[in-house]
Design brief:
It is built from five helices and no strands. By secondary structure, it is mostly helical. The longest helix has 15 residues. The N terminus is likely disordered.
């Protein structure tokens, strides 16, 4: 078997507190916490090593998060996530900030 990983940091860093201050990142964390209530969930938690999630369950979890929070990632992107923090960052990057759409150059008239 694999040796157990050292316990993750108990107190979040300033960067993690900023991340958790963003509503979408906080929602991802809360959903993961409620989905795995018996696990010691930290932002450094590895789905495979710390939470005991296999790749099929991780893929399913990623799809459920996307449906719940209305964001889109490819299965490959979800598969590349190795920590809860990376999942939060992927969610933040999957949803573009609201901005006016630029007009195509061909549509502009003098």
């Amino acid at each position: 078997g694999h040796p157990l990983r050292p316990a993750a940091q108990a107190r979040p860093s300033i960067e993690d507190e900023k991340l958790l201050g963003q509503p979408l990142a906080r929602q991802v964390y809360e959903i993961m916490k409620s989905r795995y209530p018996d696990k010691n969930l930290s932002l450094d938690a590895s789905p495979l090593l710390d939470l005991g999630i296999d790749s099929l369950e991780w893929s399913t979890c990623g799809r459920e998060l996307q449906e719940t929070l209305h964001w889109r990632l490819t299965d490959n992107a979800v598969g590349n996530v190795t920590t809860v923090r990376e999942l939060q960052l992927a969610a933040l990057n999957a949803i573009p900030a609201p901005a006016p759409q630029p007009r195509p150059l061909a549509a502009r008239r003098p």
